[in-house]
Every structure is written in C-alpha cells, then in structure tokens.
Amino acid sequence: MVLNWNMEVIVDFIIVALGLIVLSISYYSPKSKKIKSLFFIRLGWIFFWMYILFDGLAILLINEYISIFDGLILIPMTICITIGVTYTIKETFYSKGLLFICGLSTLFIYIGMQPGATRIYLEAGYLRVDWAGSFNIMGILFTSISVLYLFFWGIKTWKNAPFLIKKEANIFFIGILFICPLGLIFYVLYLFETLLILVSGFMTMIGSLIFIFTLAREPKLLYILPFTIYRIVVKDRDGQPLYDHDWSDTNISEAIFTGFLNAVQLMSEEVMHIGGLLDINLEEGILIVKESKNITVGLVASKTSKLLRDSVIKFTDDFEMKFERELKNSVKDMSQYDAAFELIEKYFSNFPYKVIKSKKQPLLLTGKYVKIPLELENKLRKIFPDEEEYEAIKTELIKSPLSFISEFSTLYEEFKDEIEKISDDEMKYLDENNEKKKQ
Amino acid sequence: MNPGVHFSNLRKKALSEEAGSSGQLVWHLEMLLKFNYIKKIKVGHYSVLLPYELDEDVGRILFILRDRINNKIIHLLIENETFIKSEIYKKIDEKREDVYYRIKTLLDYDIIILNQDLDKEMCINNDLKEDIIKILDAT
Q1: Nearest-CA neighbor of A176 among A162, A199, A161, A157?
Q2: B22 and chain A: CB distance < 8 Å anywhere?
C-alpha cells in the first residue's frame, strides 16, 4: 500500500504530537484533577487532536470513510468544549449554544451519511481527501463554533489572570490568537483556496507551540476561574481563630473577620446544624460558612461556586482529622495549626494568589505573627516608634540572618553617638561643597 | 551618586526625600553592609559609606574633597604645584582659621605635604596626586 505523504499530513501529525504534550501537561501538573470544566475542555482538546489525526490519516491513506469519521469527531469536540466553557463560567452544563449544537449534530450526521459527502482530488501536486458540499460547510461551521468558544475561554482566562501570572497569560493569549482568529480565518478562506488549509495548519501549530510553552511555565493558566477567593478562616467553637489564610488583599482585620464569623454563626445556629454549609451574600462577594464538630470554617470569595463549596467541605473534614488531637485539647495557639497550609495546597492550589496587584507593590512576608523576645521588642519599639514602620521591620526580621539584630543595634548606637559628637559647625563644614555645587 | 557620603549627611538627604526614621535608614544600611554592597570607614568622627568595591584611600579622599574649602585648596595646589601656607587663605578668599583647620586635616591624612626644601610651602602628596586629579575630573 502506497502512503500519500505530503506537507499537509506532516503538519497534521506535528499538531497532534504537540497536542499530546499539552494534554500530558494539563493532566499531570494540577494537584486536584477533578475540575469538571477542565475535564470537558481537556476532552474537547482530545477530540480536536483526534480530528487533526484522522484528517491526516484520511489523506495519508486516501480513505473517504476515515474522512467522514473525522468530520463526525467534530460533534463530540464541539459539545465538550461548549460544556467546558459554559461550566467554567456558569457552573452548569446547559446553555442555548449546547442545544443549538445538539440539534445541528443530527443534521450533520445525516448529511455525512449521504453520498457525495467526501471527494478525492488532486491539489498542489498531491491527492487530497476532503469533505464536499453541505458536509464541508457543516464541518467548517462546527470547527468555527468550537474554536470561537475556545477563543472566548482564552479571553476570559487572560482577563482574569492575576498579576503574578499575567506575563504568562499574555503569551498564552498570543498563542490563542494564532489558533483563533488567525487559524480560523485561513480555515474559512480554504473554501475559496484549498492551499490555505496549510496556512491554517501552520497557524494552529505555532499557536499550539506557544500554548505548550506557557502551560509548561504556568499550568495554573488552565484553572483560572471567573471568580476570586479572598480568605479562609478557621475558628474553634469558642470563637478563637485557629488558622487564617489570604489569597487576596481584603483589608479586613483578623479580629473583625472572626467577630463577623462569630456573629453569623450565632445568628445562624438555628438554620445551621453540625456538618451544615451556609452561603451568605455580602455586598461585594459571598461568605461560605461550614460548621463541623469542633470548628467553623469561613471562606470569602467574589461569588459562590460549587467547586468552592466542595473544596470548603473537604478542607473542613481534613482539618478536623489532621488536628484531632489539638482540637480535643482545645489548643488555641495558631502556630500549632500552621501545617494546615498542606490542606490549602491540596484543595485550593488551583486558585491563584491575587495578593500582589502591581509590580510597584512591596513584596514582603507578613511580620504579623513573628514573636520576638520582649527585651528585643522594647529595643525595636524605641528605635521605631511608628507602628507601621515597626511592623515592616518585624517583617524584615523573618528573612534576616540571626546575628543581624545585634549588628544592627551596634550600628544604630554608633551612628547615634556620632551625631552627638559632631558639632553643627563641623556638619556644615562638610556639607557645603555639595550644596554649592547643586546650586 | 554620592560615594564618600557620611551618615549625618545621608540621613538628612534620605529622610527629607522619603518618609521614615533614622532607625529605618540604619536598618537598610546594615543590610547593605551585611551583604557587602557598601563598606564603612572612619574619617575623624565621621562614618563614611562607600561602595564595596571602592578603595578605602580613594574613599577617604572623596570624603575630604566633598568639602568646598578643601576642594579649593586642592585645586590651587594642582594649578600651582606648591603654595606658601600663609598665602593660601588670601588666594582662595576664605577665612584664615577655616583654611588652617583644613590644611591641618589634609596634612593629617597625607593628602598634602610640606615641601621638603621650602618648609612653609605646601604641595600635593605625589603618591595620591593621580587619584586626586581623577576624582576632581570625575566630580
């Protein structure tokens, strides 16, 4: 059997190979894999690469049946992508677009079963197997719908990407632009000039390469959801905070937040039994409160989501199990619950941090919980009377070498003595030259 | 750039431009010293701060030349090779006691020396002359 190798087949196979890389990155990189929206988008991508693969195979083997089968793969591909994108945005499978596609699918299958759905012809020096007539138009329509949905998803992802991964999101969006609208435009133009299918293939290939590059650098791009989570607080039955974690700057102090949570809990005791979950609509977001045997967990997000609620439930159950001993002994020390960060990583690792909003923002670890000896604290407070400045220095303490404090103290005293020793006249004598030059 | 700046001057400049306390300034200076971005030398009562790579002798000259009258004296001695001590203050049009005070400092740090043949004449230390000219050209 003679294989019909040509440029189009090679481009198709390269796209499929790149697609497999994207697929493996999207599957192995996230810690929590059970995200429905992503499952459908990934399934859609699989069908897309199957479609490209069978397109290449149909031409390679000059087989019309494979070409029809290839066209019909567009149906599950479009359905999956539509569901995935709709679910990402609305957390529901159903949409008018899906109904339209399902209706259109019946027609597409019917046309595909009719004689003359495909044709074999010589183009640019090689044999092509291609869809013909209405089947071809329907194929292009289905491809366009799914690519446009993907484009819409790309825009959403790019728009919602937090500052920390914005650079990668920009590159990712360039990749999307190569696939759609560029790839799509050439794909539609192929109706008029067959060779443009090659250009469309190249555009898709370049887009896929950029796609892989950005996903390899920042897999979280796949999980950017159209909402923001701000903060989670765990408190015990007495209302004492045990764990506090921020994703975004909420400007709500820990005391106010815990107090609010206590008030909510008191008010809702009648409607909330142990194990219960409550969504409270706030002015600029939603508070999800989960009550369990020993703790209450409160999570603030920009809008409610089933995925978030599930994550809160699982987080609460695991927190109870992980800190069973501490909770039984009524341990109030927040540092004893620091290990809960592992649970944050387990259940919320897909949610990007939005604490940093611009590159001008100072990047400091919080010094809020740093405990320093009383003697040292008094000394530092004398040197830094301003509370904000003192807190900033405490923040710096976290990352300073151990000997730093004593060296700093010595230097401070040395400079202090120096200022006292030097008379004003001498100071003036040394400053004059520069001042004059500036003038 | 201000190599050879001393702490009091730095404090005045830094804290007038940015909000913050002396403590914060010292904190950051200690960080820079700790991680070898800058070094500190003593010139008289002054703690002088220099970029880590800068030679200490050059740093000392830089600090001394920051003073206007010192600068004038050095310029005079470069232009004239030697000059009688008692004539310098007249030539640069400054108070006698101010000039004598500085000549003493310059002699203490061997930036200028007394001429071996003519005791009352001053000249720039030949060992440092090249560095001094470079510094003056750069500033």
Answers
A1: A157
A2: yes
